Amino acid sequence: MKQSTSKKHSADTAALLLRISRDDGEEGESNSIQTQKKLLSKVAKEKGYTDLLIFSDDGVTGTTMKRPGFQAMIQEIERGNIGAVFVKDLSRLGRNYREVGYYMEEFFPEHDVRLVAVSDGVDTAEGEDELAPFRNIMNEWYAKDISKKRRISNKVKGGSGEPLSPPPYGYMKDPDDPKRWIVDEDAAPVVRRIFQMTLEGQGIGQIATALDRDGILTPMNYWQSKGLNRGGKKNAEKPTHWNASTIYKILSLQEYCGDVINFKTYSKSYKNKKRLENEEENRAIFWGVHEAIIDRGSWEKVQQMRGSRKKKPQKAPERSIFSGMLKCADCGGNLGFHFNQGNHDIKYFNCQNYNNKRGYCNATHYIRLDFLEQVVLQEIMRLTEFASRYEDDFMKAMIGHSMKAAETDQSRKKRELDKLTARDKELDTLFERIYEDNLSGKLTDERFAKMSKNYEQEQGEIGKRIKVLRSELKKETSQLYTADMFLEIVRRYTNATELTQHMVTELIDHIDVYHAERADGEITQRVVPHYHCIGAFEVPDWKDIPEIDILIETRKGVALSYTPEKIAG
After folding, report:
1. CATH topology of domain 175-310
2. Residue 52: beta bridge partners?
3. Are 143 and 63 a contacting pair, CB within 8 Å?
4. In CA terms, which of 207, 254, 317, 565 is 20 to 30 Å from 148?
5. Separation between Cα atoms, residue 285 and residue 478, nearest integer Å
């Protein structure tokens, strides 16, 4: 190693560099921070160093040199304040062969810094250690091997439904079973409130303001108040200041439906710790593992609302409870919300694809808001009245032949998915077994390569099919789950006398609006609500459930009436 006298430093000052992380396996107390400190202090004093500076990286991987403790030590060396560096072994310095080699071969000699690795018998004051580079290579290989084994272990655990990530805000680990999440009764009401406000049509900014006003701690500050060490930034000055990104993330988490989702992120290698978002087909979803905070129907509806707002933000000065729900019955496009330029009290929707005859829709599909409100309220009143009087008939209509067919198809897909998932887990176990056999010498490298290639090819084919099945089941499961709850939701709005955002959101998926037609001097217009689970439901024409009669005078003095849609049997 090259020696230099270009730097002056305190000859009796030594740095004790301490480090431990999961890279170091299950070495326990023998490699703990405190044990390293005691050992290095003793050795440093024996070698004549009276002034000791401690630099510690607890829980930081050695594959990176961008560690707080290590970088602080480097700065002190550059200032000329350190004459020697003591580590338990070279792996404490790092497990990156190239960078550790740079510091040992160039940086430390240029700054006249003595390096002592106690367990490895390295002391640069006594001359070069020819085995040091090989030790550094082995240290990096060790980190790579540990990383590979951990990835295999995580794949096995994650594939079995064990959560790989900490519980999100609203949940906590079960004290009796750390692998299981339970509802955190202090935080869960906040999560429910955020979803409820969203369903009522309030934006993220409004929700954040309300939570701040009511003194609700942000998730990071809440965990800190509970003594939980969770990564992230904490706002000490304003612990109740909610960021839009925090609320946005809460609204997006499917885990609140009771599901476990593993492998949502990944890293490219054991050296690069940056987490990247994983493709959906590479994730593992396990349904209904823990207690749900948000019912699946409400979660699905919130996703629809958020998607609609993100893609097509409203340009009108205000929103309607029907914004994003109205569809053109002819072209399938959305109806935009507007107000009359001459009289702002007249608010209406029309087809965005018509676009003043420059679009590709054949008519405006103009409909006034006050007329629409009456139609939808009366339709909901008829629906709830029918469900209240004839619950058995309503249940039959909800289930229907198509629902039974869907359930049969779903059962078949679940059986296939279970079979493929079991085989996927079996392949994980087989791969882990041949990997261990290869390390122990029981299996040759050539045989290992051939067998692992076959396993990986089979897993790839299985993964593609699992992706398709999970995607189909996700859609079908959410529909069936909502159907089970729909009757209860309908009961909730029996005897309602006015529309609310929440009522419309919970009951209606979308509304088809037809262009008004003139017949015998009267204009009629068809409006067809499509409810969750049952679609365009026609209430039977029974005497005790009378059809509605809505008539409204338009701004041109022409009477506009409503015609209920007749569903073909």
Report:
1. Hect, E3 ligase catalytic domain fold (3.90.1750)
2. 14
3. yes
4. 254
5. 14
